[in-house]
């Protein structure tokens, strides 16, 4: 019986180990800089972000399934950092939020689809091309009326964030910050016809009615994505800063004291 008592005490203590809770607070901001003035190679097209396993912080069903609780602003501990960012002309805060979650591994930890900032859906299509009179799609008139579908929001900041435990705490961030830009498109081939045959000095080789091609390059506005893709290891209670030429993120993970 005496040998069973320590074992029973151990079993009763084990759930507390497995039920560690962490408060996660996040600030995401953008920099007031022109992306074209930065000496970086920015691709015009990026691979799409996979949101298959991601859920929204505003979805009560997803929060309940993952054991997540949204935290009220009164519990925030990064208010001073947000104030400093808002008072600086070089930064604009896009998001400040916090939640509580367990210490799940990467396969089970909540993965949040986060969107914030300006909605560009009235100016650009989802593929980034500009909405113009010629590209606006309308359905065929029915009984003299024209039906037009409402565009889905196209947010300035779009991406996903996951905090999980794998011996250490990890923060995995993948975000696109979208900004209007200019790209060269529509290379048109303009033929120039030569009316007479010419030779290149070799009588066996003749060029008849060759067409010289004069390319025409036009410019158009489009919504260009700039990606932040970083995974960092951190400790409980640490404040982590994710740096990027056009944006930044501050993350603090705090272990909830045992009751």
Automatic annotation (TrEMBL):
Entry keywords, A to Z: Signal
Biased composition (Polar residues): 131-147
Segment forming the signal sequence: 1-18
Region span, Disordered: 125-147
Protein name: Peptidoglycan binding protein CsiV
Organism classification: Bacteria, Pseudomonadati, Pseudomonadota, Gammaproteobacteria, Vibrionales
């Amino acid at each position: 019986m005496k040998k069973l008592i320590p074992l029973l005490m151990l079993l009763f203590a084990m759930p507390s180990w497995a039920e560690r809770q962490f408060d996660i607070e996040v600030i995401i901001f953008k920099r007031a800089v022109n992306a074209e003035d930065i000496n970086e190679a920015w691709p015009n097209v990026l691979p799409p972000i996979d949101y298959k396993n991601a859920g929204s912080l505003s979805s009560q069903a997803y929060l309940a399934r993952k054991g997540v609780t949204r935290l009220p602003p009164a519990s925030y501990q990064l208010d001073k950092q947000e104030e400093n960012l808002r008072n600086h002309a070089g930064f604009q805060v896009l998001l400040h939020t916090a939640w509580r979650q367990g210490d799940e591994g990467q396969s089970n930890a909540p993965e949040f689809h986060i969107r914030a900032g300006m909605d560009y859906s009235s100016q650009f299509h989802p593929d980034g091309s500009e909405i113009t009179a010629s590209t606006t799609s309308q359905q065929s008139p029915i009984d003299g009326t024209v039906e037009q579908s409402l565009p889905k929001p196209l947010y300035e900041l779009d991406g996903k964030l996951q905090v999980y435990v794998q011996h250490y705490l990890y923060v995995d961030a993948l975000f696109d910050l979208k900004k209007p830009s200019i790209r060269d498109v529509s290379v048109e081939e303009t033929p120039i016809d030569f009316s007479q045959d010419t030779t290149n000095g070799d009588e066996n080789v003749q060029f008849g009615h060759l067409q010289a091609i004069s390319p025409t390059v036009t410019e158009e506005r489009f919504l260009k994505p700039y990606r932040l893709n970083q995974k960092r290891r951190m400790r409980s209670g640490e404040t982590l800063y994710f740096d990027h030429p056009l944006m930044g993120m501050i993350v603090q993970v705090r272990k909830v004291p045992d009751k």
